[in-house]
Design a protein that fits this description.
It is a single chain. By secondary structure, the chain is an alpha/beta fold. The chain has six helices and 15 strands. Strands 8-7-6-3-2-1-15 form a seven-stranded mixed beta sheet, covered by helices on one side. Strands 9-10-11-12-13-14 form a six-stranded mixed beta sheet. β4 and β5 form a beta hairpin. The longest helix is centred in the N-terminal third of the chain and has 16 residues.
């Protein structure tokens, strides 16, 4: 592991210091400007992988939530020294510019590592209409100005009511990882999150964050969408599961309902954090999935994957008409976070 770091990090530090003055972290050209987000709010469940552990989620249709997980849109992540960020640089640009994303109702932060909790990105996302859920002892790292910042520890849960009678619950679970921001900063938490939308159409999503192979998710049951990291395992397999281990964890979760759910792989092909080739994680994952490879979705940055849409069902169209007379769920959920978290 030391040899791996010594081969890569000095080069990244030199590249950081050579970065041209005036080139900001958000000046990257989009990979896919044609991503169809015009009907974003109509989806009961939709996801777009934005690179690394950043995923844009829609849960609950017109009265639902737009969620961003571990948003990192900077060109380089690491320690900021004045105008320069010393750390690893992106291998691929952000697929959708930050100002073209739907407004986030909720930001989920798994832990404080620089490639997951990126303060420059969070500063761009600050809004009093956006809430943040993060791990214990990490809230002070979050820029001010968000509507609410809530720390969740393992086994804790927050319930968010919706105006149409449904509710969304988010519970924190313990992955096999660690949460330090710096080498000696070991007191901070690190979370995976289970998101559940209750009501007529129940939806379950797991955002695993960073994790090595673990049985911590075996008892959670099948989910509609599982978001797992599949990269940075060589030689860091004590902290990041390899693709075969990810497929095993997903399969065990699906054991109670083998036909339910898809897997969205993340944490690969964005930053050079380890020794495996950039194409290796996806190749190995699809091989591990075998005949079930069709259940691996969101394989390219910027691709939209969606489940059942309100706009495509009779029940959905009726629900949309009824909900038009109700207050928006974003305001209702944010108000609940402010007063009941």
């Amino acid at each position: 592991m030391t040899a791996s770091g010594m081969r890569r990090y000095p080069k990244e530090v030199i590249a950081s210091l050579r970065r041209r003055a005036g080139v900001g972290p958000f000046g990257l050209s989009p990979l896919n400007q044609a991503t169809p987000l015009a009907d974003w709010a109509s989806h009961d469940l939709a996801a777009v992988w934005l690179g690394h552990a950043s995923v844009l989620l829609r849960i609950g249709g017109p009265d639902g939530l737009t969620i961003l997980t571990d948003p990192v849109f900077s060109e380089r992540v690491g320690v900021k020294l004045g105008p320069v960020t010393v750390g690893v640089g992106r291998l691929a640009p952000v697929p959708i510019p930050i100002d073209q994303l739907p407004a986030a109702d909720l930001v989920l932060l798994s832990h404080a590592h620089f490639d997951h909790l990126d303060r420059p990105t969070l500063k761009r996302l600050v809004s009093d209409q956006t809430a943040v859920i993060t791990a214990r002892k990490t809230s002070r790292l979050i820029p001010r100005g968000f509507g609410r910042i809530v720390e969740l520890d393992w086994s804790q849960q927050i319930d968010l009511p919706a105006p149409d009678g449904r509710s969304v619950s988010i519970s924190a679970h313990r992955p096999a990882h660690w949460g330090a921001r710096f080498a000696c900063d070991r007191r901070r938490g690190f979370n995976s999150y289970l998101i559940q939308s209750h009501g007529r159409h129940s939806t379950r999503v797991l955002f695993a964050g960073d994790t090595a192979h673990t049985h911590a998710f075996d008892g959670l049951g099948a989910v509609d969408l599982a978001i797992f990291g599949i990269g940075a395992y060589d030689p860091w397999d004590h902290a990041h599961a390899n693709p075969e281990q990810v497929w095993s964890m997903f399969s065990r979760m699906s054991a109670s309902d083998p036909a339910r759910g898809v897997l969205l792989p993340m944490h690969h092909s964005t930053f050079k954090l380890s020794e495996e080739h950039v194409d290796e994680p996806m190749t190995r994952l699809l091989a591990a999935a075998g005949e079930q490879a069709h259940r691996v979705v969101g394989r390219r940055m910027g691709d939209l994957w969606s489940g059942l849409s309100h706009a495509t069902s009779t029940i959905g169209r009726l629900a949309a008409r009824v909900s038009s007379a109700m207050p928006t769920s974003a305001a209702a959920w944010l108000s609940h976070l402010r007063h009941h978290a």
